[in-house]
Specification:
Rossmann fold; 4 helices
């Protein structure tokens, strides 16, 4: 089972929510009986890096697709499509709310999911792409 694990960058997590995310990653690897973890090697840390670390910790093969550029059209979009294509299932892990000290862009809602149930994450786009364009299962876990 090739499990795509994507989600929010490190600055969107507190120490507490990072620990919850790491537990969630370990749990989904076990639940899906994954032998391969696929992620995006995000330079901003967070879920992509924790997925690599947790995957290695349980002996999974880890495949990473870093963006070729730090922009949507030539970097993140093609990277996210590749993750969805190479995965059997895609799981996004994001947070319900941003830490007070978060200094990045804030949105009233996740415009990918059209919800206020969690913050916006590029991982949501990847799950949506996997589901709608490729007919693959995907889920979003909110910490």
């Amino acid at each position: 089972m090739r499990l795509g694990i994507v989600g929010s960058e490190a600055s969107k997590f507190t120490l507490e929510t990072e620990m919850e995310a790491r537990r969630a990653i370990a749990s989904i690897i076990e639940t899906y009986n994954a032998d391969t973890v696929i992620s995006g090697a995000c330079h901003l840390g967070g879920i992509d890096i924790w997925a690599r670390e947790e995957g290695h910790a349980v002996g999974c093969k880890v495949v990473e697709f870093p963006p070729k550029a730090y922009n949507w059209s030539r970097g993140y979009r093609p990277r996210n499509v590749k993750i969805a294509e190479e995965s059997d299932v895609v799981v996004c892990i994001t947070v319900k709310e941003l830490p007070p000290e978060y200094s990045g862009m804030r949105f009233d809602m996740c415009y990918h999911c059209r919800t206020q149930d969690h913050v916006k994450s590029g991982g949501c786009w990847t799950v949506k792409y996997a589901r709608e364009k490729l007919g693959k299962p995907g889920e979003i876990i909110v910490i």
